[in-house]
Amino acid sequence: MRKVLLGLMIALPLAGLAAGAAGIKYSAIAGGQFRSALKYEDAPGGSRVAPFALMRMPVSNAQFLEFVDRHPKWQRDQVSPVFAEQRYLSHWASATKLGETARGDQPVTWVSWFAASAFCESIDARLPTWQEWEFVAASDETRRDARSDPAWRERILGWYSRPSTSALPRVGLQTPNVYGVQDIHGLVWEWTEDYSAMLVDGDNRKQGDADKSKFCGAGALSMDDRDNYAVLMRVAMLSSLNGADATANMGFRCARSAK
Length: 259
Prior knowledge:
- The chain is α+β, with helices and mostly antiparallel strands and 259 residues long.
- The protein is built from seven helices and seven strands.
- It is 24% helix and 8% strand.
- The strands form three sheets. A three-stranded antiparallel β-sheet has the order 1-4-7, with no helix packed on it. A two-stranded antiparallel ribbon has the order 2-3.
- The two termini are 26 Å apart.
């Protein structure tokens, strides 16, 4: 099923990547050698991230509304329960209207992995891999890798300490990082294409277990850099979810492979 939803990706040149739907814009990421906080590789210098492009901002409610209007099978009253749980887009006024609790310029949340993947496929894109997302998330406004800076880490952790009960800001408020990408931290959690491969518990049948807190402790066992608590929390969140799950703070952005 995942191969069906993520098929037909189009490789694009890095220069001039721009709108695919509703004003979506991408930033060109040149890639390079990168040491993931997860033990994905044994080489001391890490592995190489291939060039790709990443949406500058998370997908908004307005953009996702356009998607479900064009693809009614992804509307909340028509989607298969295999692909989205009952809370899918539950904050919208109706299946095709946003309403007061879901402004068009806010990032879309309450969206399943399957729906996020289908959205990206509809614009000839895909969800980013974890390593692609982490590669971009390691940067600040001037540095490609700011992870060794304690002040940068404290700033990132500030978001995780704030309650998530208040209304989400609109997308695009944050200063772009060195790649021109915004809101990579501090707005919503984000789905990745390979989120289910990040399970660190030996028994994959436990994925989606009601006792999801156990993944926090288990996730620490796979971390190369245990001081990077923000990354650990991302891994713990993603590892605790099934593809049909939806939460109040889980959104996404799309990526494209590049020649």
